[in-house]
Write a structure and sequence with these properties.
Protein name: Na+/H+ antiporter NhaC
Keywords: Antiport, Cell membrane, Membrane, Transmembrane, Transmembrane helix, Transport
Organism: Hamadaea flava
Radius of gyration: 24 Å
InterPro entries: Na/H_antiport_NhaC, Na/H_Antiport_NhaC-like_C, NhaC_Na-H+_Antiporter
Order of helices and strands: HHHHHHHHHHHHHHHHHHHHHHHH
Shape: globular
Number of strands: 0
Family: Belongs to the NhaC Na(+)/H(+) (TC 2.A.35) antiporter family.
Helix content: over 70%
Strand content: under 5%
Structural class: mainly alpha
Largest sheet: none
């Protein structure tokens, strides 16, 4: 007869987290921001082994560890494909002139005195239209980071504004997969869920926009150099044929996203279309990129293929232009994929062996009041973003674990759906080794720890959600469940 595995002790559940905190702290202390180039990834793999050994101590087998790892890999298939597609898109959009054209027009239209607020609003509008924070950040967001570099404003604050806008749109769009998933997990209508999310999202974004306006005025260059700006514009105009036609790949991507074409497919179609368009609109850039000696057709194919795989490299002799445009390629995303694989595998092993539930159950029992329950849900969602490294684990698990508790206490499920989204989805890009944080850092080219202080919306929205729970403001009640007694 097969022996049943033992339930983990509280110490069993705590040990992997202590090891994780210790290794990540040591990696940051020894390597600084370079820790994300490998040391933290290695630390996460060590943490997987620690959690696996604890599971084996309690009667599980190594086959159970491997099964948890397989489930983790399955859960991130979509994220892996999107990440690789975004890498390809950035490389080809730089080659074809799409991102340089965005930068060229952006420098002329956007002013440092209100740049951060404009960035947040633009990204919010785009994300709400297409329903994807990742696509927004990897396309418009990357372009706005480039504009920031040319205008002389802070890329870190710009990245915070990009993420604030992207996650506002992600939360309030009926096209967003995380919004749909949250509503499904808590069993509420998606449109009702969006309405309730607006109660925290809209005030939080207004607050963020005000802060970004203040930062634009305080942190903007005191005297923007018009001569330098003209030189930058002329340099882009000399290298590329700047025309609105270069923006057609962006328009195509928006149309495909609104028509609910899968993100990976939409990104790759836009990237390939940009490459073909660039072969006609940017023949000189294409020739310079692949080198002399190739005929136009073969050279274009080679250039598109190379930019997709290894990114685009510009050698104009102007450092600012070269730094801006030498980016992208699927291979540039490999360190990020390594990070995501390590993080979600660790989270999957913790869940497989009951270590997460062992930590969460005492928190539920100690949360006597509504306010403490809301704080507990937030701590669970954000904590899972830190520990499990994946927003889907951080979103699904609390939604599943706390749904019955909310029902017992006579709290409408829309309270939980709003709180779960604020606790898990919105905080995910604040953690460097979380799949969302790793993605944002990679596509924006700004380290997570650099933009974290400026992701204002991502602090304000969960703070308001918890505050509502503590004060009772905008908390909807329903009849209590069977275990909760009569409705009060």
């Amino acid at each position: 007869m097969t022996k049943q595995p033992r339930d983990p002790s509280l110490l069993d559940a705590i040990v992997p987290l202590v090891v994780l905190a210790g290794l990540i702290g040591a990696a940051l202390a020894l390597f600084g921001l370079d820790a994300l180039d490998g040391p933290i990834q290695a630390a996460l793999i060590v943490c997987v082994l620690v959690a696996g050994l604890i599971g084996m101590k309690n009667g599980h087998t190594w086959a159970d560890v491997e099964r948890a790892a397989r489930s983790a890999f399955t859960s991130i298939t979509s994220a892996v494909l999107i990440l690789l597609a975004v890498g390809a898109l950035i490389g080809i959009w730089n080659l074809s002139g799409t991102i340089p054209t965005l930068v060229y027009y952006g420098i002329q239209v956007l002013s440092p005195s209100w740049y951060y607020a404009a960035t947040a609003i633009i990204c919010g509008a785009v994300a709400m239209s297409i329903g994807s924070s990742w696509t927004t950040a990897g396309t418009i967001g990357a372009g706005l980071i480039g504009v920031a570099a040319m205008l002389g404003v802070s890329p870190a604050i710009t990245a915070g504004a990009v993420i604030s806008g992207a996650y506002l749109g992600d939360k309030l769009s009926p096209l967003s997969e995380t919004t749909i998933l949250t509503a499904q997990m808590v069993k509420v209508d998606v449109h009702e869920h969006i309405k309730r999310q607006a109660w925290t999202s809209v005030p939080a974004f207004v607050l963020a926009t005000v802060v970004f306006l203040i930062l634009s005025l305080v942190r903007a260059p005191s005297v923007h150099n018009p001569v330098g700006k003209e030189v930058e514009l002329n340099s882009l105009g000399d290298i590329y044929h700047i025309t609105p036609w270069n923006l057609l790949p962006l328009v195509l991507l928006a149309v495909l996203s609104v028509r609910k074409v899968p993100a990976t497919l939409a990104l790759m179609i836009s990237a390939l279309f940009a490459g073909i368009l660039g072969a006609f609109l940017q023949p000189q850039v294409m020739r310079d990129f692949v080198g002399a000696g190739e005929n136009a057709i073969v050279g274009s194919i080679k250039g598109i293929w190379s930019a997709m795989a290894n990114g685009f490299e510009m050698n104009s002799g102007i450092a600012e232009i070269d730094r801006l445009l030498s980016r992208g390629g699927m291979d540039s995303m490999l360190p990020t994929l390594w990070l995501i694989i390590g993080a979600v595998t660790f989270g999957a092993v913790l869940e497989e062996f009951g270590l997460i539930n062992r930590l969460v159950d005492p928190l539920i029992q100690s949360a006597r009041s509504t306010g403490r329950l809301f704080v507990t849900v937030f701590a669970c969602g954000f904590g899972l973003n830190v520990v499990a490294g994946d927003q889907y684990i951080a979103l699904v698990l609390p939604s599943r674990v706390f749904r019955l508790e909310f029902e017992k206490r006579g709290l409408a499920p829309t309270n939980l759906s709003r709180l779960a989204a604020d606790s898990a989805t919105v905080t995910s890009p604040l953690v460097p080794w979380n799949s969302c944080g790793a993605f944002m850092g990679a596509v924006l080219g700004v380290p997570v720890l650099s933009y974290v202080p400026y992701a204002i919306f991502n602090y304000a929205s969960p703070a308001l959600s918890v505050l509502y729970g503590i004060t009772g403001f905008k908390i909807e009640k329903v009849a209590k469940g069977p275990a909760g007694g009569p409705a009060s």
